């Protein structure tokens, strides 16, 4: 399953990135190269191997439910390009978001 | 429109419940509501580079409580996933959620439909996730972002498409609210957003076994909206099908002010969340010991309580329903009956009557919760003890109750101070009655002539003379005997 320019455009849109046509061509080629390389892994027999989600064999690392103060609003906002009072200010957005 | 009998709605709900933890899911920031904007934040929930999330133990405890309470299978191993999307109130660019291996699957809750039948509604899954921040769009030009809510723990409860009417959806949501509040894991406040609901809706012809094309209706953020929005959407879908049109799979936003569901302008690719396992959080393993420990700590459920009130306390179904609707009230009632001196169906019923009428009346009038009710269960039970042992009548108890609302005094002290002790002494009452019978000779004759109503008048006059303190059943008894005696003599 080769990556097409359409795929690159789709991924770019999801990542909110814009590319020139040359860049799209270039990335299509590069992504295919990467996938071809990964294809090689298919040669391994993974019939009886569980999918791996974590490389370290740790589980159940918890924290007690205790609240502590973190940053002040001033500290939190100090790198914000734009603000209004104690809010971050961003260009107007309306519409789709996750749930 | 939605009641077109040829069609059947198919509804599934997704309910988000904000957990009552002290700190956020993956960092130590406070979860408190209504604080100054961006004051409960830290590098983790602000999504600054190089930080690592650490899971709050109570998030797991709470979701396990919910899972066990809804008969779910608890996964021995579950993992978190990243759900990727861009929105300004999600600084990291992804929400930590669970996708492929959620912690709870395959449960159910039971609702009682209007016909009184019990119906099982399947729970597909319950998983843990974090909330996003808050965007404020009210201003003309810009959007303002408050990150305080970012990282506050949620559980998402997904139902099977088992609901067949807006009413059932409402009942299901109500049941979920009852369970989370009983479990003390969420305050269940829809208006403040602690409980949020989205619905998947489709319609199909009766007898059809396949599902129709569904739409998702979001923003059902009050109990009132849920039924209304679903009625609207079901009506819209039926109307389209009747015109021979197709339903488009889309997401709609319920606009409560206009009473319409508006399609969200969205690009299809926005739904491509590119989930993948969250590498920064290790798996959660839940063994049998942990499950057993939580199972034994679960409170008795409303439906169990309800059934017990009927079976063991002998209360009518009506009483059981009202008393168990909210956990604080049921807890209060039980504390009251624990303090009763005489424990039998009769005294439990008296306690139930007083709790349902007087306690709830004051709670509703004052817009307070039962927890904030000024008369504690022990003091309230003492008053009921006084009714049961005949020290005061129910009528006098109302005055005592009023007095207790404003003072800290016990009912006994109030009764003594105000001289409200009921007169049970038969000879004192008999004296009073004799005087009344002499005074109202004319009325007595009317009674003997067949005018039954006069009996009530004579009781009233006797009570007046006794300043309301005479035991009414003794008054009735003696008066009846005296009048009957006169009748025979006539």
Topology:
The complex is a heterodimer of chains A (about 100) and B (about 500).
Chain A: H1 5-14, H2 21-39, E1 62-63, H3 73-77, E2 83-84, E3 87-91
Antiparallel strand pairs in A: 2-3
Helix pairs in contact in A: 1-2
Chain B: E1 7-18, E2 55-56, H1 57-69, E3 73-74, E4 77-78, E5 81-84, E6 94-97, E7 104-112, E8 118-130, E9 134-136, E10 142-146, E11 153-159, H2 166-182, E12 195-205, E13 215-218, H3 223-242, E14 251-255, E15 260-263, E16 276-277, E17 284-285, H4 288-297, H5 302-311, H6 317-324, H7 327-338, H8 345-365, H9 377-388, H10 394-406, H11 411-417, H12 426-439, H13 441-448, H14 454-465, H15 472-489
Parallel strand pairs in B: 13-14
Antiparallel strand pairs in B: 1-11, 1-12, 3-7, 4-17, 5-6, 5-16, 7-8, 8-11, 9-10, 12-13, 14-15
Primary descriptors:
heterodimer, A: 99 residues, alpha+beta, Histone, subunit A, 3 helices, 3 strands, 34% helix, flat, B: 490 residues, Arc Repressor Mutant, subunit A, 3 domains, nine-stranded mixed β-sheet, three-stranded antiparallel β-sheet, 17 strands
Percentage beta strand of chain A:
5-15%
Helix content of chain A: 25-40%
Largest sheet of chain A: 2 strands, antiparallel
Termini separation of chain B: 72 Å
Mean pLDDT, all residues of chain A: 88
Quaternary state of the chains: heterodimer
Uncertain parts of chain B? none
Q: Give the overall pLDDT of chain B as a whole number.
A: 91
- Identify the overall geometry of chain B: elongated
Strands ordered across the widest β-sheet of chain A = 2-3
Number of strands of chain B: 17
Global outline of chain A:
flat
Helix/strand/pairing category of chain A? alpha+beta
Beta-strand level of the residues of chain B, as a percent range? 15-25%
N-to-C series of helices and strands of chain A: HHEHEE
CATH fold category name of the domain at 5-41 in chain A:
Histone, subunit A
Q: How do the strands line up in the largest sheet of chain B?
A: 3-7-8-11-1-12-13-14-15
């Amino acid at each position: 399953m080769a990556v097409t320019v359409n795929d690159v455009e789709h991924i770019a849109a999801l990542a909110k990135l814009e590319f020139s046509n040359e860049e799209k061509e270039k990335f299509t080629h590069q992504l295919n190269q990467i996938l071809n390389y990964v294809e090689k892994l298919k040669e391994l027999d993974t019939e009886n191997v569980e999918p791996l989600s974590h490389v370290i064999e740790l589980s159940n690392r918890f924290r007690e439910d205790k609240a502590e103060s973190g940053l002040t609003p001033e500290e939190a906002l100090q790198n914000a390009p734009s603000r209004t009072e104690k809010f971050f200010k961003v260009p107007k957005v309306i519409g789709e978001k996750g749930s | 429109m939605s009641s077109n009998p040829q069609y059947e709605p198919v509804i599934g709900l997704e309910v988000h419940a904000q957990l009552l933890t002290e700190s956020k899911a993956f960092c130590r920031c406070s979860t408190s509501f209504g604080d100054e904007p961006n004051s409960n934040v830290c590098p983790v929930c602000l999504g600054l580079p190089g930080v690592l999330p650490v899971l709050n133990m109570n998030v797991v405890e709470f979701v396990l409580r919910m899972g066990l309470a809804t008969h779910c299978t608890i996964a021995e191993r579950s993992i978190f996933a990243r759900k990727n999307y861009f929105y300004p109130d999600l600084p990291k660019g992804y929400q930590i959620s669970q996708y492929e291996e959620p912690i709870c699957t395959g449960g159910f809750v039971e609702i009682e439909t209007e016909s009184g039948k019990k119906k099982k509604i399947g729970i597909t899954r319950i998983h843990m996730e974090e909330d996003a921040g808050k965007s404020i769009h009210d201003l003309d030009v810009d959007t303002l972002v408050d990150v305080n809510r970012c990282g506050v723990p949620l559980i998402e409860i997904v139902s099977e498409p088992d609901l067949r009417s807006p009413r059932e959806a409402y009942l299901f949501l109500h049941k979920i609210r009852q369970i989370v509040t009983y479990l003390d894991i969420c305050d269940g406040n829809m208006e403040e957003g602690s409980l949020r609901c989205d619905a998947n809706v489709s319609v199909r012809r009766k007898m059809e076994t396949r599902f129709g094309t569904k739409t998702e209706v979001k923003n059902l953020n009050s109990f009132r909206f849920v039924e209304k929005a679903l009625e609207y959407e079901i009506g819209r879908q039926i109307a389209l099908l009747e015109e021979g049109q197709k339903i488009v799979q889309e997401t709609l936003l319920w606009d409560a002010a206009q009473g319409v569901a508006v399609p969200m302008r969205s690009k299809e690719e926005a739904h491509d969340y590119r989930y993948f396992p969250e590498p920064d959080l290790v798996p959660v393993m839940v063994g049998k010991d942990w499950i057993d420990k939580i199972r034994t700590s679960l409170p008795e459920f409303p439906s169990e309580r309800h059934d017990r009130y009927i079976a063991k306390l002998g209360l009518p179904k009506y009483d059981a329903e009202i008393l168990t609707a909210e956990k604080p009230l049921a807890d209060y009632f039980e504390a009251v009956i624990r303090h009763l001196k005489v424990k039998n169906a009769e005294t439990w019923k008296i306690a139930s009557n007083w709790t349902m009428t007087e306690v709830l009346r004051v709670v509703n009038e004052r817009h307070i919760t039962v927890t904030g009710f000024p008369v504690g269960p022990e003091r309230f039970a003492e008053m009921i003890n006084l009714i049961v042992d005949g020290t005061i009548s129910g009528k006098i108890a109302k005055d005592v109750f009023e007095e207790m609302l404003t003072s800290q005094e016990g009912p006994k002290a109030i009764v003594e101070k105000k001289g409200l002790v009921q007169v049970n002494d038969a000879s004192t009452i008999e004296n009073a009655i004799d005087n009344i019978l002499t005074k109202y000779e004319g009325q007595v004759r009317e009674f003997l002539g067949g005018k039954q109503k006069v009996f009530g008048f004579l009781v009233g006059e006797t009570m007046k003379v006794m300043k309301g303190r005479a035991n009414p059943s003794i008054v009735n008894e003696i008066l009846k005997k005296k009048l009957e005696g006169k009748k025979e003599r006539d």
